[in-house]
Amino acid sequence: MPLYESTFIARQDLSRQDVAKLAEQYAAIVQQGGGKLVKNEYWGLRPLAYRIHKNRKGHYTMLGLDAPFEAVKEMQRNMGINESILRTLTVRVDELGAEPSPMMNQRSAREEGESETVETPMPIPEGE
Description:
By secondary structure, the chain is of the alpha+beta class. Helices cover 35% and strands 37% of the residues.
């Protein structure tokens, strides 16, 4: 079966549990169509580049799917109907890696950096 990565952005006023329920709902649609969920990554509440329906932030979630086209098409149709979903993007990929996506690595590095960050004053050049 073909492999897909489907990313969706949910409204900022939803809780993380609500976003997880949405991901489970879409995974169930794919499973009913004969596919399976290979990867599920929650990228967090991130700022949007521009406002979408009065939202400045959104919950980003990526689903890795091993599913027939018809199952993915049905999932996309349901995402389009749901008013809690601001944007979606689904692409066909050659392979789904077992390792975390670059977004997850970036998020982990940022979280580690915050816990180890020590503020130091910037030196002021002399003569100015």
